[in-house]
Amino acid sequence: MRPLRVGAASVLAALVLSSCLPAPQAFDPARLPEARDLGAKNAPMEWWYVSGYLPGSGLAFHWAQFKVNYRGIPYHAGHVAITDLKTGRLTFIENDAQDARFRFPPLRVEQGGWRLRQGAATYTLRAGPLNLTLTPRKGPVVHPPGYSGTPEVGRLYYQSVTRLDVGGTVELPGGERRPAQGQAWLDHQWGDQQPGAQARWDWFGLHLSDGSDLMLYRVRDAAGQVVQVAASRVGVDGVAREVPGVTMTPGRVWRSPSGREYVLTWDVTAPDLRLALEAVRDEQELLSKTTSVAYWEGPVRGAGTLGGQALTAEGMGEFVGGVLTQAEGGRFLPPRR
């Protein structure tokens, strides 16, 4: 398992040599996507994520594929993060191959040798150390109100498959292939937002012990002001419903080796919800040179009550820390609005 080398030449080739795309479609909040249409769109920014906290395997993982329309020129970036919770080792691998392919239906997301493919009843994810089979336990949903963000910071349509059973293996440094068992979360977002610079967010995708799934996010502008807080709960019936009146109160702050600060404990409330969340471990900062974005991505857990009944939560959190400096290897920014 060798990390893919991220070179400036690949970025330059994508920006100079690639064929020009049609003008990206404008964001229209009145035209929301079909939940099952997870295919690629002609948008300034688009991504697919699969993330999972697998405590029974002593693992957490995160795969991301980005599709960017940079002033009419396509750019593609991918990465994989693996946390070995038994040793505390975090492995981060980036993919800057520009031979990307996207198809739907069925869903095909491919970059170099990495690929997410939809089959009749499962998805397969083959990306670096990940060799996974993902079996959905619920269908795709569009999270109310259908997108994240605001007109001022940009907006992203938001679809998810919130609960997938994980099988297969994860290859760890040293050659160990560990069985992967647990649950994962798949996201698809696209729109006109510039992550890291124009907007930052604090996000959770949580599997609750009552069989429902909770999505939480807090969007901040470039000055750090909170401009949106939203949540939706996907019930056992597979229906996504807004969680009204939600609040996300920050707690303990961790300062990373890069000097950025991330909130790693949270108190979440709504009229019938109380939930205390915490990071499983602190050292989960990812500095992505292919996207020039710094963020914390890792496993989280919590406990509380819903409708007066006790419950627990397990899942993943993502907290965006901003763009990379030139000294950190930052060189590529998503398109300006």
TrEMBL record:
<feature type="domain" description="AttH">
    <location>
        <begin position="45"/>
        <end position="192"/>
    </location>
</feature>
<keyword id="KW-0378">Hydrolase</keyword>
<feature type="signal peptide">
    <location>
        <begin position="1"/>
        <end position="23"/>
    </location>
</feature>
<dbReference type="GO" id="GO:0016787">
    <property type="term" value="F:hydrolase activity"/>
</dbReference>
<dbReference type="InterPro" id="IPR023374">
    <property type="entry name" value="AttH-like_dom_sf"/>
</dbReference>
<dbReference type="InterPro" id="IPR010791">
    <property type="entry name" value="AttH_dom"/>
</dbReference>
<dbReference type="Pfam" id="PF07143">
    <property type="entry name" value="CrtC"/>
</dbReference>
<keyword id="KW-0732">Signal</keyword>
<protein>
    <submittedName>
        <fullName>Putative secreted hydrolase</fullName>
    </submittedName>
</protein>
<dbReference type="Pfam" id="PF17186">
    <property type="entry name" value="Lipocalin_9"/>
</dbReference>
